[in-house]
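Tutorial, part two.
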Amino acid sequence: MTRRRLLTSAAMIAAGLGLSAALVPMASATPTTPTAAPGAPKPTVVLEHGAWADSSGWSGVIKRLQKDGYPVVAPADPLRSLSGDSAYLAAYLKTISGPIVLVGHSYGGAVITDAATGNPNVKALVYIAAFAPDKGESVATLSAKFPGSHLTDDPTAQIPTALNAVPFTQADGTPGFDFSIKPDKFRDVFLSNRLTSAEAAVLAATQRPIAAQALGEPSGDPAWKTIPSWYLVAKDDHAVPPAAERFMAHRAHAHTIEIDAPHGAQLTNPGAVTHLIESASRTSGN
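Running the prediction step on this input gives:
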């Protein structure tokens, strides 16, 4: 594959984040799982970030969870490939004793969907404006079904207009591309202009890029088919269309809430995110 063809293919994957399709109604949020016994030990909350962020983005949530007595960890997501990222997290989860509430934001949702499969310690999955793919689906194919993303304002552009593409050589010697949000687009795409320009500039400068391969790789067997799930729909999301979030929440039969928040809800609304995580912990029997 020539460099131009690879670049075009990678661009098509990223451009898929927000095209067209139909809306499926939101699932009922009625809990069907048992409530934890008073005084029971709290589960470990594992927080998985997504693209264009890092673990520090969970700081407001971590402080609240720790104040409420929850053990919390936020391992780094490599953002290299869905299979590799999921295997890394799955291995990490095996080092944790006792029950786990596993939380994913954005692309991190796809990672937890694969990583939790077959792990009996994971008692709840919590999706924060996140991808919850079914088997064989990718982040790109899911996003391409729904309109509303601000990642591009020109569907004919080789690279979505809000993104930079940086070429690199992969471990096997083949070429790859990393995508990051342009600094002048970050506040709109990731935050829906909710934080100040100065705060957004810091987040844009520290964002973690994601490899194009990760966006296009199909998912494995989804953990949400066997593990109870919770979902936060960010109604003002400019990265993942809210219609896509509702569709995935409904399909997973997730206990769902909607809040007026941007894609980076953990940054702007850490209290609401924490409340959903703790609700998942209480009603999943942990």
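Residues 44-139+220-283 form a domain with the Rossmann fold fold (CATH 3.40.50.1820). In part three we will examine how such features are distributed along the chain.
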